[in-house]
Amino acid sequence: MKSTDVLVIGGSAAGMVAALTGKSSWPEKNFTLIKKQPDVMVPCGIPYIFGTLDSSKQNIMPVDQMLAKNGIDSIVATVTAINTAEKTVTLDDGGQIAYRKLVVATGSTPVKPKWLRGADLGNVFVIPKDKVYLDEMKTRLAGTKKVVVIGAGFIGVELSDELVKAGHEVTLVEKLPNILALAFDAEVSEKIESILIGRGLKVKTGTGVTEITGTDTVTGVKLEDGSTLEADAVVLSMGYRPNTQLAREAGIAVDEDNFIATDEYMRTHTPDVFAVGDCAQKRDFVTRRRVPTMLASTACAEARIAGMNLFNLHVVKTFSGTIAIYSTAIGEHGFGTAGITEARATEEGLAVHTGVFEGVDRHPGNLPDAHKQLVKLIAAKHSGVIVGGEVMGGLSAGELINVIGLAIENRMTINSIITSQIGTHPCLTASPAGYPLIKAAEIIAAKMRKG
Question: Is the pTM of this model over 0.85?
Answer without folding.
Answer: yes
